[in-house]
Amino acid sequence: MKKNLLVFLLASSSLFGQNAENTCELVSKINTLLQQEHFKPKKVDDSLSVYVFDNFMDALDFNRNIFTKKEYLKLRKHRLKLDDYILKNNCSFMNEFISVYRMALIRKKNVLDKIQNDPFDYTKNDSIRFSKKNFPFDLVAKDLEYVWKKRIKYSILEDISKLSTNLDSLTDNFSALEKLTKAKLFDANLCQVNSILDTKNQIEVDLQNSFLNLFCTYFDPHTNYFSLAAKSNFMSGLSTSTLSLGLIFQLNEKEQIVITEIVPAGPAAKTSKFEKDDILLEISNTRGTSYMVSCASIDKVSELIFSDTNPTIELTMQKKSGAIINVILEKQFMKATDNAVYSFVAEKETKIGYINIPSFYSNFDNNSIQGCTDDVAKEIIKLQKENIKGLVIDLQNNGGGSIEEAIRLSGMFIDRGPFSILTNNNDDQIILQNEYEGSLYNGPIVLLMNGNSASASELFAAAIQDYNRGLVIGSTSLGKATMQSIASLDSTKEENFVKVTIEKFYRITGESNQIKGVIPDVALPVLFDSIIPREKSYATAFKNESIIPKIRFTPLQNNNFSQLIALSKTRVQNSTIFNKIRMANEEINALYNNLKKPTRLAFTDVFDDVHENDSLWNQFKKIVDRDSNFKLSNTAVDLEKIKKDAFLQDINSYKIQNLKNSPYLEEAIAILNDYNNLVKK
Question: Whole domain around residue 428: which residue ranges?
Fold first, then answer.
């Protein structure tokens, strides 16, 4: 399990007890570093001050139920002065933020303590409003009890509604369910606030880390502050060599712990009950230890997840549909696999090779590099022995990694020439090209990507596209065309770090993928595509700019591309599955973009609101669960390898099942079959 969720939840112990003076020392070092090393450094001025203050307040009170209007106005006097404080090396303002926040939390705790035993009246004509934008800081102290009663009342009705689709059954048992749910919610809220207040220096640490990181993200969204623990966890990868649940968690933008990956053949995968983006609500072991994740410390949650002394774990998860499930998992010893890249032979009319590249990883072994390119080379050799007539390269959900690996991989398919251009803060143009001439694979290529394909993935896809080396299909990529490096703020202590953007990369045409992404040659409908966060979602993202390249390149001649694109577009337009995805996306977009009406705080109203989109979720499931009409098999080499290994067999079956559901792979195969048919004529 990747331990990067700790990056988001743990504050470094090295920061405990640090004062305002230390905050200023760190921010001064960060600013010095960024002014020297950042690709496009910014002045420390009022603009920075406003950005940091507004986002800082949002982080502290996103739901606008902590600070009163009076407290907000008290802190707002700093809104245009943070830059001045920083430049004058005076960070005493942090003490005021800490003090006001602590008092607000104590007040919240007192209110919750007071109202938790009050009976809730569900017959009143109260309602709750929703908004995509933050409400103003207009809370009045005398209204705090009323606000929290409304908030918890809605949460009670919502949680009960999620238990079942049978309204009559829930109504019959409402009294008992309400009592149980109310107690649970108050426990969670009180637990959360008590955890913050009772942990030594927790507020100081959290506020300092948040402030420092916001200072960094003002320069661009990928420049971040790291404590030693955060840096270590950011750099760590997936470990499958211990007892594991077979789940990878991360913290989302709502500060919820969600599943980001399900390890093939692991305990979670075998149940078929888990999906990406499921939210972890509660975790317990067989000895009666149980934690509500919303309030427990990360140390306690991690002990249950990672410890070998807790072999059996019960997880309470919330699905995308809102449904709540409880699953008991027995941890399994997860052996490390040889590599992350994998391949199959897909067959429909002819044999087509398929290679999945989940990331552009690079492993350093002494002075030699053993990364994803080396692993791809091994897979190509195996596939060529199967007499494949084309190759599908899958970069869907590949978030990038090593630019060096992306260049090496480009050279595996393109004989010679430049592949990308780097520019730094001196406007130098650095030409990136493979040091070796000669490609490993010369056959036709179709490259798959989506909105989560980013950075190094985009560099590679752009090179394939610019040289006419293959067709890119799927949806527009994320749009990140920047490179980062991690630098220490003090080489003697190695306690604080900044991941800083130092370069931008451009296509060999001089154009940039920044913001706009790599646009596919054939666009395929993808569920939720329009609401996937892309680079343009970040307020401080770099703009799209072009340069005049100081190089020339010669694209390959491919007279079949226009025909292949036309045939594919016609097929996609007439495809049943892609039309279903289009229609589903229309409903998703309407649901996401339309302003939600206020909901009356009555059980029937909240129940209807919760289950309004049940049919839509069922529709999604049917789309995802369909089978494609192509055969998928292992290469002879892999088949021999997994024949006597049950673990590898499970992994293999899991991957095949996922791919058999893919209309994107099906279309890629169809394009390559079109290519082979055109060549025969």
Answer: 342-571+628-680
